Structures are given as structure tokens and as C-alpha cells.
Amino acid sequence: MAKIFTVASGKGGVGKSTFCANIALSLEKLNKKVLLIDGDVCLRSLDLLLSVDEMVVYDWLDVLENRCDKDKARLFFSDNIQLLPAPSEYPENMTCELFGSLLSQYRDEYDYIFIDSPAGTGALPLCFAQCADTCLAVATPDEISARAACVLGNQLTAKGIKEENLRLIINRFDEKCVKKGKMLNADDMIDRTYIRLLGIIPEEPDLMCSSVTGKQLFDYSDAKTAFDNIAGRITGKEIPLIL
Asked: Which of 79, 124, 128, 163 has the highest CB neighbour number within 10 Å of its CB?
């Protein structure tokens, strides 16, 4: 049975979708089967990141509303990575119970399911988080993003999500900028968000390029190593929290 992660953020532009695509690739290297669910309704980006956008016919709302079965909606990026595209319009009357029924149709077929949530603390992001086993809060190392992640964490705990089921991903970490005092360090981010750290992904031009070209990161890149380390921690390995 799959462990379900919601990948969320208090503000947009922090790299949630890029994180989802790359963590799936790292987990695939560990022979894990991953389902990515694009929850960013209307905006939608995972099909572009995985270069399967021309294959999209159905989405997860079609499955919920019985316009197609669960198999027709899935797109195959590889044997071990599949995608459920997001609908192009906001689903009316969405509830946690209804979305949970969608997850239950796929949960037995995968090791991990990642829901790429819309930014913010609206009804849909909170619903996705409540349906997951763990919520990963993605933030960049700046005051605005840290405050937004803190607000997100407070909203989630108010909805009954336990603090131990919230984990922080610091994305686009530039050590040179941190040393110059232009960005927050890891301890600052933890202190400001009150969320336990799962991993740090360094700033890297190739990561930005991969998010707009669909090209995979080189295995020897620092960012790829960071994703591999996070994937290892997700699977239960003891890996030190260092860059």
C-alpha cells in the first residue's frame, strides 16, 4: 500500500512541481513505483515537466465523475512513474472523502503517491493534506517564503494534522548567499517555520532548466544528489542532513 505525500507551499514559485518530478525519478532508481497526481487545478504543469502533455485525454476529475475508469486517466512516463493529470477547471463540491475515494483506487498499485498541491492555504490544498500520510512543505530560504510556510503549517495543524506528519523541504539553497547574509540558513528556516527538516536542495541552474525543458538532471549534480538523499530518507534510510 502506497504512502501518500502532499507537496504543498504557503506561496507559489518555490518549486513544488519540480520537486515532485525529480523525487519520483530518484525513487525510481530505488525500484519504487510512484504515482504523481497533479493537484494544481487549472494551472497544471506536471504533464509538461514529464513531457507527456500531448498524451493527456482524461484527468482525475474524470475518474471521480465516472467519465473514464482509473486506468484510462493514467499517463505512463516510465514503467515505474505514472501521472494523473489535473483537471482544467475547479472541481465543484470537492471533499476530503471524495478525493480519498480516488486515492483508494490507486493506493495498492504503488509504493508512493505524491500530490502536487496548489500554493496557499485554500480549501483544495488543505483537503489534499488531510488525505495524505505526510505533508511536505516546500520553501525557499527567504523571509517571505519562511513566513508563508509557517502559516501553512499552522493551518494544517489547526485541521488536525500532527506536527510529526509535517516535514520541510528547503529548495534553491545558495550557500554563498547564506554566508553573505542575503538568504536564511537551515537553522533559521526551521526556527521560522516550526517544521522539522527533511532535506535541502541547492540552487542549481540545471534544475531550473529541467523544470522548463523536461530534461532530467545529471546524476552527478549536487541537486540530483540532494533528491537521492531525500528519496533515501523517505524509504527509511539514515542519511545525514547535509548538502
From this structure: 128
